[in-house]
Amino acid sequence: VFSLGVPVDALFFIGNQLVATSHTGKVGIWNAVTQHWQVQDVVPITSYDTAGSFLLLGCNNGSIYYIDMQKFPLRMKDNDLLVTELYHDPSNDAITALSVYLTPKT
Questions:
Q1: Which domains does the chain have, with CATH numbers?
Q2: Which site from 3, 20, 54, 81 is most exposed, i.e. has the minimal number of CB atoms within 10 Å?
Q3: Which residues are CB-neighbours of 52 under 8 A, at least 6 positions away?
């Protein structure tokens, strides 16, 4: 049984990993290989998109964060998901929409 502890706004797959997101700022990821849920607190989420193995999160603080789901990266010191800031809006405006397209490999 999985409980994110907050309402789930979106539930989708990236590869073989099930992802649950909440606007409150929580991300839950089920890794089918290890049979393990990883729950991570982030800044409140206002938009999201996926691109290949990447999960991109637009947040209310003006930042876009990403998680590379293919690597399912965990920080060694505390076993948290490795969430990386990709962009920060200088005026701190919320990122309310994301649309990502990766060109096919040639």
A1: 10-88 (2.40.10.480)
A2: 3
A3: 70, 102
